Amino acid sequence: MTEFLTPPRPVRLTLRPALVLTVASLLGLAMFCWPLFAHPQPSAAAHGADAPFVFMATLPVLILVVLAELSRGGIDAKALALLGVLSAVNAGLRPLGAGTGGIELVFFLLVLAGRVFGPGFGFVLGSTSLFTSALLTAGVGPWLPFQMLASSLIGLGAGLLPRARGKAEIFLLVAYGVFAAYFFGLLMSLWTWPFLAGTGTQLGFVPGAPPADNLHRFLAFTLVTSTLGWDTGRAITNAVAIVLLGPAVLAVLRRAARRAAFEAPVRFDQASSS
């Protein structure tokens, strides 16, 4: 029965950190959606790319603000140790399938850890996992802050899933793992779409067009280039991994959370004098 108890959370979300996390998530989503609302002049090609470069510089600051606020809200040494271990494991898992039909195991563990340890820890783990794996695989580039934020949102969402146990919980996590795969691909395609599709094609970005028109072009573009390929491979990987390994990994993570006793205060007994 102990496996069904809610384990203590390593990152405690008080009102202020929760508010910062909410605002940062909304701002991050807005940064992904810049092509739907940008209105650069077609002739000003040199300035048409200003928005994404501004966001590339802003996103790391946004992520650091959130991480600093969450740390201030309560991340102790045990939570940092757990975060380091899971980030290292995720970084080691990513190269196993990266570049092969969308097979990526990094999101499988992220979803399960976010589920067990809560939305705050899931957000932090999403950023640290992608950052660590980028260093390991030489994947550092202008896309990295966007990958970090998208992964953080996936970890955050996993921590906010409703209560469920047993087979119902596995079904819930499989459904969320599939959603997370398509969600990540959608966001990553959105901010790069104007550069990959160009402006002179039927699926390309049209500067100044109504958001609904550009959204229609983008959905057709991502369906052909990402959704039916990489995203589907990622969704299948998440679903299979959660079904096969999910129950065992959830049990291990929950046992680790209980033994770490994150919410228990740390006390140092003063040695008695002889």
UniProtKB/TrEMBL annotation:
Q: Which domain of life is it from?
A: Bacteria
Per the UniProt entry, what species is this protein from, by scientific name? Amycolatopsis melonis
Species lineage: Bacteria, Bacillati, Actinomycetota, Actinomycetes, Pseudonocardiales
Protein name, as recorded:
ECF transporter S component
* Record keywords: Membrane, Transmembrane, Transmembrane helix
Q: Which regions span the lipid bilayer?
A: 18-37, 49-68, 105-131, 143-161, 170-193, 235-253
